Amino acid sequence: MTETPTPQPAPNPTLPLEETINLLLADLGEPTVACAESCTGGNVAARLSRISGSSAYFLGGIVSYSNSAKHDLLGVSDEILESVGAVSPECALAMAEGARHAFDADVAVSTTGIAGPTGATARKPVGLVYIALSIQGAHQVEEHHFPGDRAAVTRAATERALELLHDGIVQLISNTTSD
């Protein structure tokens, strides 16, 4: 007999994403979640941890603003940092995987980018952000070009990271319930 997976709530436009994530995970305690942030400066972790009960699934976050922190705390290789740089899909993925391993989490999300107004180059303009998701054996990286000033880029990157995290959690739960 095939078991029908339990439907999981989609992001509710009236609820902040961190509350929707909490509704998915608070009673389960699994999957566990972690994050690694650069351009969002801890905003993803702050949004997740502001919800009472999030300690049941949110293990922590690492704000790795410098390349040395990305390397030392998350295991981003010198090769990635020197060849493609900190603002790259390769670095975003290595950060997400590093956070997942550092916290022994089931799923992790990362952000790295140019929030501005300084730090941009012709190849890497203000608003360029890479967001990665690492789930046991699977991963996803997105490239975004968010408009606006530093605050707007940070807000948009934080929101998209939470959306990607939500979608990854739903996928992980669906895979678990269909096994």
Describe the protein in words.
With 179 residues, the protein is α/β, with parallel strands linked by helices. The protein has a single domain (28-178), classed as Maf protein (Alpha-Beta Complex), CATH 3.90.950. The protein has six helices and five strands; from the N terminus they run αβαβαααβββα. A five-stranded mixed beta sheet has the order 2-1-3-4-5, sandwiched between helices. Helix 1 (17-25) runs parallel beside helix 6. The longest helix has 29 residues, at 150-178.
Annotation keywords:
single chain; 179 residues; alpha/beta; Maf protein; 5-stranded mixed beta sheet; 6 helices; 5 strands; 19% strand; disordered N terminus
Gist?
The protein has helices at about 15-25, 45-50, 65-75, 80-85, 90-105, 150-179; strands spanning about 35, 60-65, 105-115, 130-135, 140-145. It is α/β, with parallel strands linked by helices. The chain has a five-stranded mixed beta sheet, with helices on both faces.
CA distance, first residue to last residue: 12 Å
The helical percent reads 40-55%
Counting DSSP H or I runs of 4 or more residues, the number of helices is: 6
CATH class: Alpha Beta
Radius of gyration: 16 Å
Low-pLDDT sequence parts? 1-9
